[in-house]
Design goal:
111 residues; alpha+beta; four-stranded antiparallel beta sheet; 3 helices; 29% helix
């Protein structure tokens, strides 16, 4: 399911193969944010609505919505990890070692 959500972003030559997803149960339903790192310090994202069984996937109609404040906290956390493992090393390209270190730090829980 998550792999499918990234396909909705399409191709961009500056995309990295690294990104993250946020699965969020809000008061009005389930949302999946799929976010991919682009260039040095940009993110591209797409937001979907889904059902509680994750069987349906529908792109959020209002494409101007970026994230709620709870999701934004996770985006900031991921940004800090990207700075720590990728940007602080002045890497022009993401090495396997740096990418592995970035991916090794995972948040799984409630805010």
């Amino acid at each position: 399911m998550i792999t499918k959500t990234y396909q909705g972003l399409g191709h961009n030559d500056l995309d990295h193969q690294l990104g993250f997803s946020i699965i969020h149960l809000a008061n009005d339903g389930w949302y999946i944010l799929s976010i991919k790192w682009n260039n040095a310090n940009n993110i591209r994202h797409i937001v979907y609505e889904t059902d509680e069984n994750f069987k349906t996937l529908k792109r959020l109609q209002d494409k101007t919505i970026i994230a709620c404040l709870w999701e934004a906290r996770l985006i900031v956390q991921e940004s800090n990890l990207w700075q720590k493992h990728i940007l602080s090393n002045n890497l022009l390209t993401v090495t396997k070692d740096a990418g592995d270190k970035y991916l090794s730090e995972v948040f799984n829980g409630k805010l």
